[in-house]
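Aim 2, interim progress. The first record below pairs a target sequence with its structure tokens.
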Amino acid sequence: MRTGTPLFPLPTVLFPEGPLPLRVFEPRYVDMVGRCMRDDEPFGVIRIEENGKSSSETQLCRIGTLAIIADWFQSDGGLLGILAIGSLRFQLHATARQPDGLRVGDIEELPPEPRVPLPPEFVSMSSALQHLIQKLDRLYQGIETRFDDASWVSLRLAEILPIGLEHKQHCLELEDPLERLRYLRPLVRLSR
């Protein structure tokens, strides 16, 4: 169990090994990024549940992804920009608020997904992913591609496809990459 992990609640889902560009402007998150960079520690990206409540009452999903800061820059407007890369998934057990409003959590790191050879029935999905990644070249530049790995292919498809956040969260929570690919197959067809 990892205690006191800084959390960055967002209306998005970060997947293991996936890129997440962020512009950081709230002081609590600027401080958090500084601490994470200084201490070489990750922070947790966790999706905000859609419940219509105010930000102080927002509910968080129970599964998120640890993020490692891969790069940072200062934008023209003075905002801090970072590129975070997803690491391990985690299960959130408890949260607390620090005096500055930053949420921290007690989390349990979940094991990494093993590499699983891509079955022939999903080769067309891998081909579609290759095409999508070519279009998003800049964002995926420098990220190792594994188009023959069912886990990697399923996570990238869930990340890139224009599907609802509830579908993305469901994919993050699935532990079987083949089950994730079966879930995504009709959504890939719809997005073509």
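The second target in this work package is listed in the same format:
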Amino acid sequence: MRRNDWLTPEGTRDLLFEECAAKRYLEERITGIFENYSYSEVITPGIEFYDVFNGKARHFPPETMYKLVDGKNRLMVLRPDTTMPIARLCATRLRGEELPLKLFYNQSIFMVNPKDSGRDDEFEQSGIEIIGGENEDSDYEALFLAAKALCECDEDYRLEIGDSGIFGELLSQYNYSDEQQTEKLRVNIEDKNYPAIDAMLGDDKSNEALRTLPRLFGGFEVFEEARKRLCGEAIEKKLARLEKLCRELADIIPEEKIRVDLGLVNKKNYYTGIIFKGYVEGYGQPVLSGGRYDTLIGEFGGREAKAVGFAVNIEAAAKVYLKNKGKTLAKTPDVLVFSNDKIAALKHCEKLISEGLSVRNFNGACPKCAEKFAKKHGIHRLDVINENGDAESREV
């Protein structure tokens, strides 16, 4: 019989030493960006009512959520998304606050992923939400801050930008109204699963634009190609605005970092406008995702407020950072302290810390053991406290 008390659940893992240091480093660096732009931090509960994630524009497939029942037999979930709880917060406790609100967060989310998908079921996100801002101004700011956050993870990054509304317009043009099939098609286009797309759309030539959508990917030349293949006044307006946004962003983000992806539709169906994902070298999954959601907050019964935001997967970013940078982030102590008098040792540690040094209190049996430990771990100073309480510093 397999002993589960030795294991972590599927989709979860223990983080050790360098991984923790990289995670904390990136969280602090990215949070610093948000604080420099005067975003305010919020924290929402890790446990939410199931209903928060089961509305019209905020539907999460039940099989992707960790569910539990509270003491009153009400269905609860571990938070699978941060945007929806913040939308709930804005519609309730923050409903009287002056708009726009600029919020940031650092918190974990929990999602059931397919076995062997390579994705973690639990991971931390650092992100922002701009609530109530005008479309263009807040889109520019969100995308610029997203690029800055990606650069903290790795300088070799790319930011892929699309508009979820184009997919919606094509669906309405071709009367593709079956909800389940629509969601399957959304997922297949997002994943660029061409055989599955062809199987769903068949040989019907009227669906050619939908079939083409995931292939409209690349540099700014995509806009010219899209105008040849996609038609309709509403789509042209979206293309024009997206092109303007991307070209103007190239003044503050290197153009080679920006990619246009009109097949970016996202599996979360609350997005209503621009949508974007961030990638870094050496990691096949996005480490950042976000977009505009203009109807979500109103669905919670509060005031209507347009919004845009994004989140960074800190665990994924930390993996990439350690792999690409090869940096040692776990700090080596400045001083190792040894004394047979453990109270004296702790007092000396406090004295050194007050002088701005980092310390490690050695709990071994003798000074020679302490010296051996210091050499092994690269600690260059050993303070041995004698019976009189005086410290003798040794260079190791």
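The two ends are 50 Å apart (CA to CA). This observation will shape the mutagenesis plan for the next reporting period.
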